[in-house]
Design goal:
The chain is an alpha/beta fold. It has one domain: 2-enoyl-CoA Hydratase, Chain A, domain 1 (Alpha-Beta Complex). It has ten helices and twelve strands. Strands 1, 2, 3, 4, 5, 6, 7, 8, 11 and 12 form a ten-stranded mixed sheet that branches. Strands 9-10 form a two-stranded antiparallel ribbon. α3 packs parallel to α4. The protein is globular, with a radius of gyration of 19 Å. The N and C termini lie far apart (about 45 Å). InterPro entries: ClpP/crotonase-like_dom_sf. Keywords: Signal.
Length: about 280
Amino acid sequence: MVLVRGFLTFVVLLFVCGTATSAAADGLLPIDIRAKFGRSPKTNFHICRSDYLVLTGELWSNAADFVRDCLVKNKSARTLHVDLLGGEVATALKIAQALEEFGVDVVVDGRCYSACASFLLPAAKKVTILGGSIVGIHDIRYRYLDKNGKLVVLKQRDVDKLEAAVRARYRPVDDARRAFLRKYGRSEPLNQIYQRYLDRRPEFLWGKGDGSFLCPAYELWILNKAQLKAFGLRYANEPWAPESQQQVDRITRGYRETGRYFFGSEDSMNRQCTLAGFF
């Protein structure tokens, strides 16, 4: 049973450990992994080298122990390269704690969605977003597997509907999430705007059709440069960000992603699935 904030997939884990003189020489950075194994690999790569770490795919429970163990054993490994689609909230919080404790920089090389954007980036000593990379957030909902293995999606405020066993696990995770937000002075305003958009969809569509034109079903909100700068991160240099919806679509197609992603201002998102959005 897992509480995740992101996409649910079944993956195989590949662990690579050892030493190296430089990240580029290894050919094991996210850009190299995409070239060798496909631009959207199903495998989660956890790579530990003497001077850097790599996480790709999704964050599951073993990723936190892997990161901490690598940082403890390699005093020069203080840069984490990521191409992440999201993952468990609890795992992301543990990794964020390790990043802050050891003073680790994070380099976004590809994607940083969901839990990666919400927790890993704020905890980083410095953040670098490479050209062509995208950062995406969504609402504050939790996905978990019930006792029958069925995926259940609940809003944060619907915690009382959770099974007792899951509720007991959920509350500490949510308490830790709230403590993290207080510590970094973050209120998740974009996530809340996104959540209100999702809440409007069923009523706007009267429960009929997919609303692909009148009320699009977006999976993520890709952040522009202004939103990234307002995200409260410590950047190593000027963050890269796409400049248009068309550019976002080209980038995500390049990653072989089929989801529909929103790109735009807070006002534009607030107008989605409203009559005001047509005028």
